[in-house]
Specification:
By secondary structure, this protein is an alpha+beta fold. It is 22% helix and 37% strand. Catalyzes the oxidation of uric acid to 5-hydroxyisourate, which is further processed to form (S)-allantoin.
Length: 298
């Protein structure tokens, strides 16, 4: 029986970087978490402990910080990840591929009686913006998205007409709360895009579709969100969603002599439904290895 080394990569995980743009008195903050991983001629590293082609993970960490300074900041996280991937592959002949994953955390200016403060911020608890850039030789893929976008609609949602078995206890409803934490990731065609502008638009489209869709199922709402994005953005080949159904159950108030016209709910945190799907365009180019570097569905 032969034994061989399989697919592998290595790097420095969760490099926390905060960049402050001080070019004017009104400062700007970029707060990111970078995970850098490389692939290449690593057979001897694993099998005999020869580190001649093993760029230290500490060097990868230092490169993230140094490039933030050399490049004058981070900019769109997709652009920063692409530049990092290209640097590692182009500058080191023993590195054949790179995976750069970045999360971005947003801050807002603190509002004072004189208006937004120039250099004081409060952490925004909205969604986390994400990107995963993969470079394999000359091929490059960009997957962007967000996680933790919490949304709720207090009506305009139904669920009925489903199969019934002897284990079914869920009651059909024509008026329920629909709530979820949206994780989305979309695959770009090519790499030459205004990523900040596209992100803002895609986020807004997802929110608008969630709000305006009279939902007969969370699956239907998911599809309408994806459809809205693909119709407006030809540069997006596909978008994938993972959306838990954060159940809100009406509380039975009859023991207290009270009715409950869908006003008082128990918000259950578990168990929950988990809805996942991809929305794709027919003519989208094949994804290659883009999704292989992303754990789970998205």
């Amino acid at each position: 029986m032969g034994i061989r080394l399989g697919d592998n990569q290595y790097g420095k995980a969760e490099v926390r970087l905060v960049h402050v743009d001080r070019h004017t008195d009104v400062h700007r903050i970029k707060d990111v978490n970078v995970t850098s991983q490389l692939r290449g001629d690593l057979e001897d590293v694993h099998t005999v402990g020869d580190n001649a082609t093993c760029l230290p993970t500490d060097t990868q960490k230092n490169t993230v910080y140094a490039k933030a300074r050399e490049w004058g900041g981070v900019g769109a996280i997709e652009d920063f990840a692409l530049r990092l991937a290209r640097h590692f592959v182009d500058e080191h002949e023993y590195v054949h591929g790179a995976r750069q994953e970045i999360e971005e955390y947003s801050w807002e200016r603190i509002t004072t009686s004189a208006g937004p403060h120039d250099h004081s911020f409060v952490r925004n608890n909205a969604e986390t913006r994400t990107t995963v850039v993969t470079k394999d030789g000359n091929r490059e893929w960009v997957l962007s998205g967000f996680t933790g976008l919490t949304v709720l609609k207090s009506t305009g949602s139904e669920f009925h007409g489903y199969p019934k078995t002897r284990y079914t206890t869920l009651r059909e409803t024509t008026d329920r709360i629909l709530a979820t934490d949206v994780t989305a990731r979309w695959r770009y065609v090519g790499t030459d895009h205004d990523f900040d502008k596209a992100y803002a638009s895609i986020r807004a489209l997802c929110l608008e579709a969630f709000a305006n869709t009279h939902s007969l199922a969370l699956q239907q709402t998911l599809f309408e969100m994806g459809r809205a994005v693909l119709e407006a953005h030809p540069e997006v080949a596909e978008i994938r969603f993972s959306m838990p159904n954060n159940h809100h159950f009406p509380v039975d108030l009859t023991p207290f002599g009270l009715d409950n016209p869908n006003e008082v709910f128990f918000a259950a945190d578990r168990p929950y439904g988990k809805i996942e799907a991809a929305v794709e365009r027919d003519d989208a180019p094949e994804p290659g290895d883009a999704w292989k570097t992303v754990p789970g569905f998205v």
